[in-house]
UniProtKB/TrEMBL annotation:
Gene3D superfamilies noted in UniProt: BH2638-like
Coiled coil ranges: none
Entry-linked InterPro entries: BH2638-like_sf, UPF0223
Family designation: Belongs to the UPF0223 family.
Protein name: UPF0223 protein AOX59_01250
Pfam families for this protein: UPF0223
Length: 88
């Protein structure tokens, strides 16, 4: 990992942890597999930090530019799947 996670300087320490954890799970979904429930729980925490859809799209775009991993398809697959694990 030679890139930085997108974040806002105004976030609290816990908010930064929640966002970093969510993006780390997105990475894990591409590189290995991730527990569906854990991913959806992390996404709910991410949405508490980034409630606006437009902001979410901005952070997802920045993350994809930096890492090459798209967040939205992972979240979509987790929402629609009944499997316990998600992999891309």
């Amino acid at each position: 990992m030679n890139y930085h996670y997108p974040m806002d300087e105004s976030w609290s320490k816990q908010e930064v942890i929640d966002v970093v954890n969510f993006f780390a799970l997105i990475e894990q979904a591409y590189e290995k597999q991730v527990n569906r429930r854990e991913l959806l729980a992390a996404y709910r925490k991410f949405k508490q930090v980034v409630p606006a859809k437009s902001e979410e799209k901005t952070y997802f775009r920045e993350f994809k530019q930096a890492s090459g991993y798209a967040g939205y398809p992972v979240v979509k697959k987790a929402r629609e799947s009944e499997q316990q694990t998600i992999n891309m």
